[in-house]
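User: Okay, second chain of the day. Same drill as before: sequence in, structure tokens out.
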Amino acid sequence: MRCGVDERRGGRRVDGGCLNGTALHSMIEEKLNHSVEIENDANCFALAEATLGAGKGHELVFGIIMGTGCGGGFVFNNQIRLGPNLISGEWGHSVLYPDGNECYCGKRGCVETYISGGGLETQLKNHGINYSAKEFLNKKNKNELEIKIFDEFLNNFGRSVANIINSIDPDIIVLGGGLSNLTRLYSQGIEEIQRYVFSGSFKTPIVMNKLGDSAGVYGAALL
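Assistant: Same drill. Structure tokens below.
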């Protein structure tokens, strides 16, 4: 669940499009006759990887989901950091290019419109290329235009992740979601990050998740 403003209860915020104005949290509790926790999927992913997965043993873990959308979770000492606005880790909606691609959130140039599966597929369609994000990224023999789009994708990945490192300098960054399986993220992608990190040395581990598609479920259980 993503955009919108809804009820706040127990320190959690419920976001959604068609759910705007709906007290989902209390509705579920009433139906189940039991208290429940509701949390963002990226936060659940980050919590699981920080406590059980690739980020275990690190104090400050930033988890990134690159799937249909693009989100992040911020975990400090095995606790999800929500922040006073309850949006800590919403890196997918930080602006990469002020006059860039339109985003459903109403802004332009959000990270999500460049390095998520949905964002990449929109860019491909704008160039008349009818591949899914997965098909495109795994395509071996790319033409000149496809190579340009692929290199721009990795460059935008580097810019986006470097912004995280430049602002909070986490001990480790864990990648999840379908696009995190792209091996070039961990070679050329890391080289692109290094170009934009404001430091003479670049030591941040950028790693693939260990819990796979189940990470979010583990995180929800840990709540």
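Residues 114 and 120 are 6 Å apart (CA to CA).

User: Thanks, on to the next one.
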